[in-house]
Amino acid sequence: MERYLVMLEVSQKQAYIFGSNKLKDNIRNSAIIAWIMSPEYFEQVINAPEKFNQKDNLVYSGGGHIVLEFPTKESAVTFVRKITF
């Protein structure tokens, strides 16, 4: 069975998280990255369980990046376009 992987990553995480001298800003920035790279965020943005859901699509999530799998190239491309535009 063919599957198509999608890997998304937040670049410059450290610079973004630690861009302030204030601990509360660093914590907030870290939480923002954690949220936008979470499967729950993707489920909310896509809002169509048949196109994205954790059970069927999540391979790995952590550290500011996520790996997802899709059954077709078209479904992977559609997901990426929806998430990144």
Describe the structure in brief.
Helices cover 51% and strands 20% of the residues. By secondary structure, the chain is an alpha+beta fold. The longest helix has 14 residues, at 23-36.
Q: Could you tell me the strand content as a percent range?
A: 15-25%
The protein's oligomeric status is single chain
> Which strands sit side by side, in order, in the main sheet?
1-3-2
* Low-pLDDT runs: none
Tally of helical runs? 5
Q: What is the share of helical residues?
A: 40-55%
Structural class category:
alpha+beta
Overall shape: elongated
Tell me the Rg in angstroms. 14 Å
Note down, in words, how this protein is organized.
It is a single chain. The model has no long low-confidence stretch (mean pLDDT 94). 51% of the residues lie in helices and 20% in strands. It has 85 residues and is α+β, with helices and mostly antiparallel strands. It has five helices and three strands. A three-stranded antiparallel β-sheet has the order 1-3-2. The radius of gyration is 14 Å and the shape is elongated. It starts with a strand and ends with a helix.
